[in-house]
Write a structure and sequence with these properties.
The complex is a heterodimer of chains A (about 110) and B (about 120). With about 110 residues, chain A is mostly beta strands. Helices cover about 0% and strands about 55% of the residues of chain A. Chain A is built from no helices and 11 strands. Chain A is globular, with a radius of gyration of 13 Å. Chain B has about 120 residues and is mostly beta strands. The chains are: A mainly beta (about 110), B mainly beta (about 120).
Chain lengths: ~110, ~120
């Protein structure tokens, strides 16, 4: 069954600290993996898109890693800011289609 | 560009009423997607269009749901009759296909639907 699972479900950290979010997927065949950030009351916004040949990709303080062999990805946030408080969603398209399968997300809260 | 535009932003209606959600994709984009987000099920694809033609509507939950895209700049998602379990946030997203790689989907702000 094509699934995307994320952990932890929620996370609380202090401003300035680093954190890592995890994503495991069973989608096959695999073409790419995406991380989205969703602020409360807003639509998701793409952070990174990684193909199977990419191991690491950065977008500012966000760094995503991908291990296509173990079917795992992580999103590392460096020097967190209050504005990083949001849900982070891991997304994998079903095969070579445009149908995205969404993880349930990690709810991150950054406190001062 | 203004991004994907959705209206209304909030809709409260009574069970049994017809609800119409509207979406204007980013100009020039050739794909349009409708999603539903709930606490229990997260984000789910309902239907998507390519060049105004429905490609896959397997995510549409029931015959009560229908979607149209009469032209490249406008799409509607209609629920008739609405039920309380339809309460959710409905997102529209658009993208532009390009050769050689995956393409991003840009989401609108969503319509929060409450059916009482």
């Amino acid at each position: 069954k094509n699934q995307v699972e994320q952990s932890p479900q929620s996370l609380i950290i202090l401003e300035g600290k680093n954190c890592t979010l995890q994503c495991n997927y069973t989608v096959s065949p695999f073409s790419n993996l995406r991380w989205y950030k969703q602020d409360t009351g807003r639509g998701p916004v793409s952070l990174t898109i990684m193909t199977f040949s990419e191991n690491t990709k950065s977008n500012g303080r966000y760094t995503a890693t991908l291990d296509a062999d173990t079917k795992q990805s992580s999103l590392h946030i460096t020097a967190s800011q209050l504005s990083d408080s949001a849900s982070y969603i891991c997304v994998v398209p079903r095969g070579n289609t445009d149908k995205l399968i969404f993880g349930t997300g990690t709810r991150l809260q950054v406190f001062p | 560009d203004a991004g994907v535009i959705q209206s209304p932003r909030h809709e409260v209606t009574e069970m049994g009423q017809e609800v119409t959600l509207r979406c204007k994709p980013i100009s020039g984009h050739d794909y349009l997607f409708w999603y539903r987000q709930t606490m229990m099920r997260g984000l789910e694809l309902l239907i998507y269009f390519n060049n105004n033609v429905p490609i896959d509507d397997s995510g549409m939950p029931e015959d009560r749901f229908s979607a149209k895209m009469p032209n490249a700049s406008f799409s509607t998602l209609k629920i008739q009759p609405s039920e309380p379990r339809d309460s959710a946030v409905y997102f529209c997203a658009s993208s532009l296909a390009r050769a050689g790689g995956p393409y991003e989907q840009y989401f609108g702000p969503g319509t929060r639907l409450t059916v009482t």
